[in-house]
Automatic annotation (TrEMBL):
The keyword NADP applies. The gene is ribD. It catalyses: 2,5-diamino-6-(1-D-ribitylamino)pyrimidin-4(3H)-one 5'-phosphate + NAD(+) = 2,5-diamino-6-(1-D-ribosylamino)pyrimidin-4(3H)-one 5'-phosphate + NADH + H(+); 2,5-diamino-6-(1-D-ribitylamino)pyrimidin-4(3H)-one 5'-phosphate + NADP(+) = 2,5-diamino-6-(1-D-ribosylamino)pyrimidin-4(3H)-one 5'-phosphate + NADPH + H(+). This is 2,5-diamino-6-(ribosylamino)-4(3H)-pyrimidinone 5'-phosphate reductase. One of its GO terms (molecular function) is 5-amino-6-(5-phosphoribosylamino)uracil reductase activity. Transmembrane segments: none annotated. It is an enzyme of class 1 (oxidoreductase). Its EC number is 1.1.1.302. It comes from Methanobrevibacter millerae. Pathway: Cofactor biosynthesis; riboflavin biosynthesis. The keyword Metal-binding does not apply. Residues 3-216 form the Bacterial bifunctional deaminase-reductase C-terminal domain.
Length: 222
């Protein structure tokens, strides 16, 4: 059992989702509104710990009209429980689940940091030995009533999710900009596939201009 997973991201024409110096204002205003409408319409939103550490995102609906109950459940894939106490995703604006790996479970559960998170109502899910088992996580989220999940990056988690066959749909904003840089993260990093034959095939289902940006929607072929 798993939620329907939509990967949403913004990239430059050269496929970069952030520069090597961590500059990432890519989407135009219209696209950010589209993203927040999507946030409003899903049950959960998930990011990797790399994104939390780089951006300190809120992962709430705050760029379009919304009520507090419109906020999706926030999920952080954080094997080693590195989420900082000050991270905005641990505030009370929405429910938050930190998904971590079993190796770090016992040290974390007795830590002061864990107590602070618990007082804020943050929940934990442990799976995998040293790295979160993403399939087990999807199964758990589905068991919690999460039917739709928006994956909002970053580069490492995106690749792990698509490699595991867990992404159903991809919505990409392509900004009319080029930044280059061998160290700038792309839409899918990770270890990559060795051959084109192993690559994941997609079917383009929609494309339209939005302000200066281009939006492409793909179905992931399984
Ligand atoms: N432009 C966009 O749409 C967009 C969206 C989100 C993030 N970003 C950018 O992406 C960057 C972060 O990307 P990133 O690749 O460094 O980090 P990430 O957010 O992809 O998090 C990766 C981390 O998740 C953890 N993890 C736990 N279990 C895992 C598993 N099974 N598979 C893979 N990872 C697992 C690991 O610690 C790993 O290092 C930030 O700079 C952020 O600004 C851009
Ligand atoms: N769609 C999109 N366009 C961008 O230009 C960009 N940089 C992101 N990046 C997504 C990433 O997850 C950010 O961390 C959150 O968008 C932070 O913002 P919030 O406080 O959660 O609204 N996403």
């Amino acid at each position: 059992m798993k939620p329907y997973v939509i990967l949403n991201a913004a990239m430059t024409l050269d496929g970069k989702i952030v520069t090597a110096k961590n500059s990432s204002n890519i989407s135009g205003e219209e696209d950010l509104k589209r993203v927040h409408e999507l946030r409003k319409n899903v049950d959960a939103i998930m990011v990797g710990i790399g994104t939390v550490l780089a951006d300190d995102p809120r992962l709430t609906v705050h760029k379009v009209d919304a009520n507090p109950e419109d906020n999706p459940v926030r999920v952080v894939v954080d094997s080693k429980c590195r989420t900082p106490i000050a991270a905005r995703i641990t505030n009370k604006d929405a429910k938050t689940i930190i998904a971590a790996a079993n190796e770090f479970k016992y040290d974390f559960l007795v830590s002061d940091r864990c107590n602070v998170f618990k007082q804020r109502g943050v929940e934990f899910f442990f799976s995998g030995d040293t790295r979160v088992d993403l399939t087990a996580l999807m199964d758990y989220l589905a068991s919690q009533g999460i039917e739709t999940l928006m994956l909002e990056g970053g580069a490492t988690l995106n690749f792990a999710m698509i490699k595991e066959g867990l992404i159903d749909e991809i919505r990409i904003c392509i900004a009319p900009k080029v930044v280059g840089g061998v160290n700038a993260k792309t839409l899918f990093d990770g270890e990559g596939f060795d051959t084109m034959d192993e690559g994941v095939n997609l079917e383009l289902t929609d494309s339209f201009s939005l302000g200066k940006d281009l939006i492409l929607t793909y179905k992931v072929l399984k």
